[in-house]
Design brief:
Chain lengths: ~60, ~260
């Protein structure tokens, strides 16, 4: 019984953190140069997608 | 119910609450801006670029918008913001309103409004002049291009729409959906579409970690007004959540009159 409860506690303790830390689904993206100041965009496509998701949920 | 089970349920309920806060806890603070770029990637959210751009980036935001090149025409901004249920996040860095319906057209490109949030004092400055606060409307295209519209706040009349944010924001780090209240962010912009199309434009970055560059900034020239009480009420939530000016490093700020 104690082991089951301990396992339950641990799973509840870490579940939200793990949910937050799951990487977002990625999709192929195309990059176009931003105006007005063209810049070599070194951000990886999956990171770009993640930044959009990140900006939705964080300050950004 | 035996006492072990009761104790366990109590412990679980305490933990569930604290974990909610822990999961939302800030990974960085405004007091440690000089070391944002040194935060190890083991402490940053997976899938994002490391925070090194905060320290090494050459096109960072915010900037002083005082030195500009006038342009007669550039792509117009067409904000199509709609009233929607008020969902506020106090995320430990700012008050943020989450949105799902707004859009912004710039030329042929359509951006979705992701969220908007407030900094006090303003992050952008004009020839060294700081405003009491600044709202950032964060937009993205489906392929991940970011455009942020910045709106300065000056002291003046009460803004009833902004009052909804102040009245319903949680004091703790928490997200709330406010039942029965809608908000239309168009009422947090200058009322005239002409004023919504006089702006400073430059290429910069997110002003918070990961400080990602390639963000197109449109900072409106016309501030909106909040009352003194509204500004001071916001400051009871966050009073110094602004990144200081970053060097232009040769970038040109365009000014659309
Ligand atoms: Zn911001």
């Amino acid at each position: 019984m104690k082991h089951i409860l301990a396992g339950l506690i641990l799973s509840m303790l870490f579940a939200p953190v793990m949910a937050e830390e799951q990487s977002q689904p990625t999709q192929p993206t195309t990059t176009s140069s931003p105006s007005p100041d063209k810049k070599a965009d070194t951000t990886k496509p999956e990171e770009k997608t993640n930044i959009v998701d990140f900006c939705r949920t964080h300050t950004c | 119910m035996n006492s072990l089970l009761k104790k366990t349920i109590f412990a679980l309920s305490c933990m569930a609450t604290s974990v909610t806060f822990a999961a939302d806890a800030p990974h960085w603070t405004y007091d440690e801006q000089n070391v944002w770029g040194e935060i190890p990637s083991s402490l940053t959210p997976p899938g994002l670029p490391p925070y090194t751009e905060c320290g090494l980036g050459q096109k960072q935001s915010p900037v002083d918008l005082g030195s500009t090149k006038l342009v007669a025409s550039t792509n117009a901004l067409k904000m199509q913001y709609l009233a929607e249920p008020l969902v506020i996040s106090n995320n430990g860095h700012t008050l943020k309103v989450n949105t799902t319906t707004g859009s912004l057209n710039i030329g042929n490109e359509q951006y979705s409004l992701l969220q908007y949030h407030i900094h006090a004092p303003s992050e952008h400055v004009l020839n060294g002049k700081t405003y009491p606060a600044e709202i950032h409307f964060v937009h993205s295209t489906p392929d991940g291009k970011l455009a942020v519209v910045g709106v300065f706040i000056e002291e003046g009349k009460v803004n009833p729409e902004f009052q909804k944010i102040l009245a319903h924001s949680p004091n703790q780090v928490q997200d709330v959906t406010v039942q029965g209240v809608t908000i239309n962010p168009i009422n947090l912009l200058p009322s005239s579409s002409i004023d919504r199309n006089k702006f400073f434009l430059y290429s910069g970055s997110l002003t918070t970690p990961p400080c990602t560059e390639g963000v197109n900034w449109y900072v409106l020239k016309k501030p909106i007004q909040l009352s003194k009480t509204q500004i001071s009420t916001f400051e009871t939530f966050y009073s110094d959540n602004a990144r200081p000016n970053q060097p232009l490093n040769g970038r040109q700020v365009l000014e659309k009159q």
